[in-house]
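INTERNAL AUDIT FORM
Audit reference: QA-55
Scope: verify that the stored structure record matches its stored sequence.
Auditor: D.O.
Record contents follow.
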Amino acid sequence: MIGINIYLALIAIATLMSFYRVFRGPTTVDRLVAVDIMTTITTGLMVLFALYYRRMIFLDVALVYAVLAFLGVIAFARYLEGGI
């Protein structure tokens, strides 16, 4: 139980740092990387919820979310590159 609280505190710090980069990022690519980091943080949070509540359905949701987030970031990066 204490371990999960420590993980949640670290996730909160990482989220705040990512929000800072989203709003203050000097370029669009920096903002895109920050959004990608936030999707990774959210995936980790879903895995922690699966461990805490002992519900394995959260792992399936986290896996689908991670794949869709990855595809979204790749599509946006291709758009920025001019490939789409």
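Auditor finding: record pair retrieved intact. The helical segments are 2-24, 28-53, 57-81.
Action required: none
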